[in-house]
Description:
The protein has helices at about 15-25, 35-45, 60-70, 100-105, 110-130, and strands at about 5-10, 30-35, 50-60, 80-85, 90-95, 130-135. By secondary structure, the chain is α+β, with helices and mostly antiparallel strands.
Amino acid sequence: MYGFTTTIQGSSFDEVLAHTIQALKEEGFGVLSDIDVQAAMKDKLGVDMPRYRILGACNPPLAHQALQAEPDIGLLLPCNVIVREVSSHEIVVGFLDPQVMVGLVGGAGVKAVADEAEQRLRRVCTQLGGHTSSV
């Protein structure tokens, strides 16, 4: 398993995206990057697809701790969060499980950061509501 998701029904993509960003903020995460995959696929390949965004979420104190424990951990940062449209009123929000970092890097310092980041991201997932699952 590499992540966890929640599927939200009855809300628009824009509503879920805004709620996700706000819930991340409440847990101390800012959004450093916002990749519009739908627009990129249309622009680069001429392909139409449902709305899909990749948010690069960062909690600065946790990122700093991780970088102190393992300077090259930046290869695995920030925490990716996806918001993708299944249908006009079914949206999936997915979170990369920070424990993936521990499996790749190891080390007690990274484990402590991953534990804290996972707890915060799981609270965001819960706050969004919907049906949760692992991926």
